[in-house]
Amino acid sequence: MNETTTVMQTDLDRLAERVEKAAALVQQLRDDRARLEQRCGELESRLKNVEQGLQGQDAAAVTQELGALRKEQREWTSERRDVAQRIEMLLKKLERLEG
Question: 28-77: per-residue pLDDT in tens?
């Protein structure tokens, strides 16, 4: 009977550990859910603000502005590339002068 009691106590201890782990997991999931609900609320608020900011804007005008911004970006990229090439040439000349 002593052996049976020991086995039952061990089983109860394992069960208690599993229940504690499950309870901790449930609490973690609740915390995660609360955090995600808060984040969702923040994002909904930001979306609402963006939608309000876009109201009244013509889609064609926004598309045109986007095209202009992309063109400007390409120009800046090209200019950046040119500047990088000039710097490389100057560095090579400097190395020749030092060498």
Answer: 999 999 999 999 999 999 999 988 887 878 888 889 999 999 999 999 99
- Cα(75)–Cα(69) distance, rounded to whole angstroms? 10
With 0-12 / 13-18 / 19 or more C-beta atoms within 10 angstroms meaning exposed / middle / buried, residue 61 is exposed
Q: Are residues 52 and 84 in the same domain?
A: no
Tracing tokens 């090439």 back to the chain, one arrives at 85
Same domain, 46 and 10: yes
CA distance linking residue 3 with residue 7, whole number of Å: 6
3-state helix, strand, coil in the chain (%, to 5): 95, 0, 5
What tokens were used for 56? 């009244």
